[in-house]
Write a structure and sequence with these properties.
The chain is built from eleven helices and 33 strands. The protein is an alpha+beta fold and 579 residues long.
Length: 579
């Protein structure tokens, strides 16, 4: 149970019925509550950056928000998530209460099927039984188990979660799982109780069973955004992932603490209390400046009538279209003009109104955004930084890489995570696990092709190949390395410097090893274990050994490695790596 989001690509005539239908589907009660209360529009997927923005505006502090988001997205290469289908994801939680989720079989988590396309492309999703949720009986049992002085508290969650495991509906206890039951409920406390470390029974029921805000909470009024780092923008801020998604913003008078707001009865008014909006593009692209403005308070759209009166509508039509016009005299100021009737929106000392022409400073407005940790908008891993038609730089930790990613297209760029191609083994072949192959001149190009596909974990490049030209084989894993001198093969595992037929003896972090079937899985265990810098995969015993350093020992059925640190594209002979 982690996060959520803020904007959708287009309104539909059945939006209200969709909200009513889907608000119980997210296993995360925070997400379901935000859908039911209209703060979160329904969409097929939400991005990592959008969820960051949304959680900060919901009230979680930045350091807490980033931890939850990292845990949820660290194994989702697309950086997108379908919040209505989160059951069975690899980081669902180590244990589950059963209040809002059903029993999932994680006994073969690494081999659970993964979608071939869509927002969850390449992410294993394990089978889940059908059950009726939310479950009041499970909530009451959970409450009785954890309550302390008639409250659910952070301390009781921390101290009793381990002993609750025997009552959990499922267990997902692999070393890679980061989400915990305690963190999930502490998240609810931090958001809905204004940072307090306890919650009463009624609030627990309101959020988990009824999917409603508890008394005293209003989305966006208490924010995890640092006011000192909020910034006014001259245009609507979007993230481009093929569909334009707007972030949350406030519509504010630069000259006073006056905000555009909608009250619970649907009346548009000027308020001293901050309220958030999102924008929906008229034609789904940034080529148009016309937007519909959706209130995160009511889920309704700001509407303007021919006589200049303001109201709201449940659907976006011609009277709900607004033009964002930049004011040339001030870098942080815009006009909001009605696209059909031409008048401007005015907020300030004169009150909320519409004006036909400039009369005071009130018609000059600011669109105020939360600064998302990590800086300015950027393109995530494995994505095309030119997909919008304009260049959006790659995010930190990735490099813009040109390659023939798709045989049906010309060469184009992707943002490839650094260190994915640190070193490879010459004259060595990885047997089996092929899922894709194509002509490729160099091992470096083969590795980059692998790094650009979230399904690929390893690759082999044959300089001499049965296809009559150098060829690249992408693999879902790698279990057995063998002699490849006849094909002048080059083999690599993403993110690893490999030591062939080598056991790094001793210095174990995890005693007795970890059951493991592939080299790449062993590497990932090391990457996700604090203190691990070296690992050994024992193919004969199907075990992975995590280590702090390497004391080399020959082993015919072992492969060892260090975490990748060499420059992308480099490769070395086996003898250079045996130290």
């Amino acid at each position: 149970m982690f996060l959520v989001l803020a904007i959708f690509a287009g309104a539909s005539a059945s939006q209200a019925s969709l909200d009513q239908r889907f608000h119980l589907d997210p296993i995360c009660p925070f997400l379901g509550t935000m859908v039911n209360e209209k703060a979160l529009p329904i969409r097929d997927w939400y991005s990592k950056r959008e969820l960051t923005d949304f959680v900060l505006n919901a009230g979680l502090q930045a350091d807490e928000a980033m931890g939850h988001i990292f845990a949820q997205f660290r194994r989702i290469a697309t950086n997108k998530i379908d919040i209505f289908n989160m059951e069975g994801l690899p980081d669902e939680h180590t244990t589950s209460s059963g209040i809002n989720d059903c029993k999932t079989d994680y006994s073969h988590a690494e081999s659970c099927p993964a979608p071939d396309s869509g927002p969850m492309h390449g992410v294993p999703i394990c089978p889940t039984e059908q059950c009726a949720v939310p479950n009041q009986a499970k909530l009451d049992f959970f409450w009785d188990f954890f309550k302390e002085n008639e409250h659910l508290t952070a301390s009781s969650l921390q101290s009793r979660t381990a002993s609750f495991t025997q009552y959990a509906v499922d267990q997902n206890t692999g070393d890679r799982v980061r989400g915990t039951l305690a963190d999930a409920f502490k998240f609810l406390m931090q958001v809905f109780t204004n940072g307090k470390s306890k919650m009463n029974y009624d609030d627990l029921v309101t959020i988990n069973i009824n999917r409603k805000y508890p008394p005293g909470y209003s989305f966006g009024e208490t924010s995890g955004c640092d006011p000192a780092t909020e910034y006014p923008a001259r245009t609507i801020q979007y993230q481009d992932d093929g569909i334009m998604h707007s972030f949350q913003f406030k519509i504010k008078s630069p000259w006073s603490e006056a905000y555009l707001a909608v009250d619970g009865s649907g009346k548009v008014r000027q308020s001293s209390t901050r309220q958030l909006w999102t924008a929906v593009l008229t034609d789904g692209s940034t080529n148009s400046k016309n937007v519909s403005l959706r209130s995160s308070k009511t889920g309704q759209f700001l509407s303007g009538k021919s006589d200049g009166t303001l109201g709201v509508a449940n659907e976006a039509g011609s009277e709900e279209q607004w033009l964002v016009e930049q004011y040339t005299g001030e870098q942080t100021v815009v006009f909001l003009n009605h696209a059909q009737y031409g008048y401007r929106l005015a907020i300030g000392p004169g009150g909320l109104r519409t004006v036909q022409q400039y009369v005071t400073n009130d018609d000059r407005l600011s669109l105020v955004y939360c600064t998302i940790p990590g800086g300015s908008p950027c393109t995530g891993g494995y994505m095309d930084p030119w997909s919008s038609g304009e260049h959006v730089p790659c995010c930190g930790g990735t490099t813009e890489t040109l390659n023939k990613w798709n045989l049906d297209r010309d060469d184009y760029y992707k943002c490839i995570p650094n260190g994915q191609c640190p070193s490879s083994l010459n004259n060595v072949d990885c047997q089996g696990y092929d899922f894709k192959d194509q002509a490729m001149d160099t091992p470096e190009g083969c590795c980059s092709l692998c790094a650009g596909d979230s399904k690929c974990k390893a690759y082999t490049h044959n300089k001499i190949d049965g296809h009559g030209a150098p060829h690249c084989y992408l693999k879902t894993g790698c279990n057995t390395l063998q002699d490849g001198s006849g094909s002048e093969s080059t083999t690599g595992v993403l993110g690893a410097n490999l030591l062939y037929q080598t056991d790094c003896n001793g210095n174990d972090i995890v005693q007795n090893g970890i059951t493991c079937t592939t080299i790449d899985s062993c590497l990932q265990f090391c990457q996700e274990t604090p203190g691990c810098s070296v690992w050994t995969f024992d193919r004969y015993h199907t075990l992975c050994w995590l280590k702090t350093k390497c004391t080399r020992k020959d082993c015919d059925f072992c492969v060892s490695g260090t975490l990748g640190t060499f420059a992308q594209g480099s490769h070395r002979n086996v003898t250079e790596l045996l130290v």
